[in-house]
Automatic annotation (TrEMBL):
Gene3D superfamilies: 6.20.370.110, Biosynthetic peptidoglycan transglycosylase-like, DD-peptidase/beta-lactamase superfamily. NCBIfam families: PBP_1a_fam (TIGR02074). It comes from Lederbergia galactosidilytica. Residues 336-613 form the Penicillin-binding protein transpeptidase domain. This is Penicillin-binding protein.
């Protein structure tokens, strides 16, 4: 213990003698000075004077050839002057977002300290303490990440912003770019979106609701959560009264005012490949970490796999209501479709629904989770069976009496042949042979095959109904198109993707996509599967998908409803040429006895698929399959067999003719010898009697 005390005393003496306190303070001061210098340099090199112009930059979407395809130019860019914004809306925003806005020089020390101690208490960054100026700086000039480094950059830039613009100019820019949910960017469009009126005509109550939405535009969207939005409005009104912006009577009147919603806002992507652009946004946000704010305010350049010819053709199909079934009450049968290049995994076109488009709404091409029905059979059953040693002509059981621990599958056509070759089971989409075969090869092999095709399988899915598409979560047209692309691409699946590159506002490449490649099966197995799927369109359930001048392979699928044995809930068709895969789903968002599909998938969804491909294929190279359909192989074999029989008969005739000629020669020779003998005998008799 004494030795430890001695060591501590020695360290203290050395520390004091070496003036380490001063050195430590000097070093800390130097680090702080360098840090402040860095942030001051960042602020000095940022051109905040160009901020107004920067806020009006659109994000541009480019197609696969690098041509401009669409612009994400939200209506906030068509901003209004601050003189057109009623004072009570300006005050409402200031009251709830930054009540000291008119007093500070870009940042609020009290607000920052309050946020700092709140974050310390929480153990993580939960509060920002940002002023309106800082918020404008963040969305216009910085990333949205919550770090102390970003917060310091924000403060220095905010100070410079305050020196470059007046308070009214800062507030105007902020109000014209902030997001209010439901596609409403800027106060003018938000007012149209929620109240159906110009911003200059909104009431104090409506202004307070708009101001309240800014904090959490999705959670406080009155179309989605009116109760929460009203609660937030009331908080804003009380803040306005607290800071003397409105009187108590005005507050009470506004608190009692009934909010009436009336959406007269415009879709910011209307007429510009909206579903495809939605999917671009979703991929950029969910996969590459950008935020919607960044994309819609920074002027990015996003390069995609879109083929404008194919995208336009697909949209034209979806604008043709005559192709789609109708319901008695006018509810639209919904649909989603994808066109994909199997050689690159690039999504060339997609449509995510019918009817009015909602900005970043439900996209049935990419977000659907519907059971796939029989389109799963080639993936979960027949491909792993081919790999296990079966072939297209292998005989499978097709008996009505088959039962698997109480599970009794039934063929949709209610016909049973006892035994069928594999190609026939696929062509006619028979259920019993598929279940029997999955049972033979094992559910685990089927599940593993689906995983290789890029289709997730849950533990609940691992039963024999998997053979018929009985999955727990279901799949989207995008997923099914990617899975089938392996057949078109020699057994290799390339990860489906929309974005190829994202270039930031400064010209730096922020994202460059290199899609993952997966060997699903060997090329021979892919060719065998394609040969059978060609039959589906040649003479099977997909025969209505035939297009003159093109060879297509594919598979139908459907799921049944419980109340009508001839009715279906979901209908699918996935088909392909060597260089284009198309997948389409058809059904109602909510299925009931008034809203379901009547007729088979071959009669209803297949003609939609045919129209998709017929309009798209003329725009790409017409490439033929390396393999032939089973029908062609059988036909050629029959011709070969018939030729063989004729050739054998011909050979037999020739042999018989040759033999006949030989016998004729022998007989002729025999006749000659007989004459000689006869002549000799005559001579002998003549000599004897003479």
């Amino acid at each position: 213990m004494k030795s430890i005390t001695t060591i501590v005393e020695a360290i203290k003496r050395f520390w004091k003698k070496a003036h380490l306190n001063q050195i430590l303070i000097l070093m800390i001061s130097l680090v702080i000075l360098l840090g402040l210098g860095y942030f001051a340099w960042v602020a000095s090199t940022t051109n905040v004077e160009a901020l107004k112009q920067g806020l009006s930059q659109s994000t541009i979407i480019y197609d696969k050839d690098g041509d401009e395809a669409s612009k994400i130019s939200a209506n906030r860019m068509e901003g209004v002057s601050i003189d057109e914004v009623p004072e009570h809306l300006q005050e409402a925003i200031i009251a709830i977002e930054d009540h000291r806005f008119r007093e500070h020089n870009g940042f609020d020390v009290k607000g920052i300290m309050r946020a700092f101690f709140s974050n310390l208490k929480a153990g993580r960054i939960t509060a920002g303490g940002s002023t309106i100026t800082q918020q404008l700086t963040k969305v216009a000039l910085l990333s949205p990440e919550r770090t102390y480094k970003r917060k310091l950059e924000e403060i220095f830039l905010a100070v410079k912003l305050e020196k470059s613009f007046t308070k009214d100019e800062i507030l105007e820019m902020y109000m014209n770019q902030v997001f209010f949910g439901s596609g409403g960017w800027g106060v003018q469009n938000a007012s149209k979106t929620y109240f159906g009126k110009d911003v200059g005509n909104i009431t104090i109550s409506e202004a307070a609701m708009l101001a309240g939405i800014i904090n959490r535009p999705s959670a406080l969207d009155p179309y989605k959560n009116m109760e929460a939005s009203i609660e937030r409005r009331d908080i804003v009104l009380r803040q306005m009264e607290k800071y003397g912006m409105i009187t108590e009577d005005e507050m009470n009147q506004a608190l009692n005012e009934k909010i009436v919603l009336n959406n007269q806002g415009e879709d910011p992507l209307k007429g510009k490949y909206p579903y495809y652009v939605d999917a671009v946004l979703n991929e950029a946000i969910n996969k590459y970490g950008l935020t919607q704010d960044e994309i819609l305010t920074r002027g990015y350049k996003i390069y995609t796999q879109m083929d404008q010819n194919l995208q336009s053709s697909l949209e034209n199909v979806y604008n043709n209501d005559a192709l789609f079934p109708s319901s008695s009450d006018g509810t639209l049968a919904q649909s989603g479709a994808v066109l994909l290049d199997p050689k690159t995994g690039g999504i060339r076109g997609l449509v995510g629904g019918r009817g009015e488009h909602t900005f970043r709404g439900y996209n049935r091409a990419t977000q659907l989770t519907a059971q796939p029905g029989s389109v799963i059979k080639p993936l979960a059953v027949y491909t792993p069976a081919l790999e296990a040693g079966y072939n297209a002509y292998s005989i499978l059981k097709d008996e009505e009496s088959l039962s698997f621990d109480g599970y009794k599958p039934r063929n949709a056509n209610h016909q049973y042949a006892g035994e069928v070759p594999m190609y026939q089971a696929i062509e006619d989409s028979l259920n019993v042979p598929a279940v029997w075969l999955l049972n033979e090869i094992g559910i685990e092999k089927g599940s593993q095959a689906l995983e290789k095709f890029g289709l997730p399988v849950s533990d609940k899915d691992k039963n024999l109904s998997l053979a018929l598409g009985g999955t727990d979560t279901g799949y989207s047209p995008k997923q099914m198109a990617e899975a089938y692309s392996a057949f078109a691409n020699g057994g290799q699946r390339i990860q489906s993707h929309i974005i190829t590159k994202i270039v930031g506002p400064t010209g730096n490449v922020e994202v460059e996509v290199h899609p993952k490649k997966t060997r699903v099966m060997d090329a021979f197995t892919a060719e065998q599967m394609t040969a059978m799927l060609l039959n589906v369109i040649d003479s099977g359930t997909g025969s209505k998908a035939k297009i003159d001048g093109y060879k297509l392979a594919g598979k139908t699928g459907s799921t049944q409803v419980s109340f009508d044995e001839n009715g279906t809930k979901d209908q699918w068709f996935v088909g392909y040429t060597p260089n284009l895969v198309g997948a389409v789903w058809l059904g109602y968002d909510y299925t009931d006895q008034q809203h379901y599909l009547k007729g088979t998938s071959g009669d209803v969804v297949v003609p939609i698929f045919r129209s998709m491909m017929a309009n798209s294929l003329p725009h790409i190279e017409n490439e033929d399959f390396k393999t032939k359909s089973i029908n062609q192989n059988i036909e050629e074999q029959n011709k070969k067999d018939n030729r063989s029989i004729k050739e054998k008969l011909k050979d037999f005739d020739e042999k018989m003719t040759n033999e006949a000629e030989k016998w004729k020669d022998k007989m002729d020779k025999g006749k000659g010898k007989l004459r000689e003998m006869e002549e000799k005998l005559r001579k002998k008799l003549k000599q004897k009697f003479e």
